[in-house]
Amino acid sequence: MTYGDAEFGFELLACRWAELAWPPEERRDSAVVVSRQLGTQKRRWDTVVVEADPEALAARRQFGTDALDSDLLHVVRNAPTEWAWYRDALPHPGYPWRYVLAAVHRAAARGVVEKRKNGNKVEIRRVAPYPDWVERIVAVEHKPDLDASAARALSDQLAHDVETALADEVWVATTATEDSVEPALLESMPVEVGILTLDFAEGVHADVGDVAWYPSSLDPTTGGERFEADEKAEKRLAIAERAYGKGWRSFHDTMRPDCRHFELRREGHALVPWCAAKERGQTAAECSGSCPEFSPEPPQWRTKGWPIEGGPGKGIKQLLERRRKWVRERDVE
Ligand code: SF4
To answer: Which portions of the sequence form the region Disordered (predicted)?
Structure first.
């Protein structure tokens, strides 16, 4: 197996599998948006699967392909159908109006709201109603080598996820082995957390996931010790928006596809990074300008259109970007 052992490789393969086959062992009724390394300041999940209403997700496209952050969401979701002074139209957000005005300008520059001057007042109008596209948010923690001690180490974090109930469901994904998941291992984890086994020995295919333990649905609509119900709803939408904007293929933004050793390898239905110098799947952290084997792609590799479109590095970025766009649109058509 070339991938699936290291956490980063496993994470990418698991994201691709979720894109193909979520929810595990069930028929897909929702559209899915998959992203990685998202959450709150205190808790970051390896994979986030947003289950979305297909029509509402299609309507979300009117606001572009980038995420709307919480300040932009405040403007977009409350913008009126008719022109109105932004201070009349928007609820007071609990912070100074000048920040709201800055968000209004940003929203208008992005084309997600209309803006005009009326005397010395800035008026706004919505471009479309912001759709209610998020149905459920699923958090997946990865532990390719899940043994009893790894399960114990994870249990506090998972108990926190269950208690906070920011996601509707929490799972641990691990590598499928010959043995079934040990009862001792199940005992170390909160009973509400699902366990998913993934077998990437032959790469990513829709049928490589098995449920070893089904999770319980959590209730994200009620407030708790950490978040009030309203605050939680806002955080959930902000997470879903980040997932929408980021997807899971954005690793090329931080890795070095412009290195001559950087390749994309096919693992079943997945394309994942491969380092020809190290002869293995490289991690995102080591694939940087400070990598001792980093070597810029030679200029003669650059194809026509250089420097705007050319070069293998650019080609990889464009390929991943095209795939991200294609998947984003696939489930809503
Ligand atoms: S040599 Fe280093 S920078 Fe180049 S692809 Fe491999 S890990 Fe990335």
So the answer is: 289-315
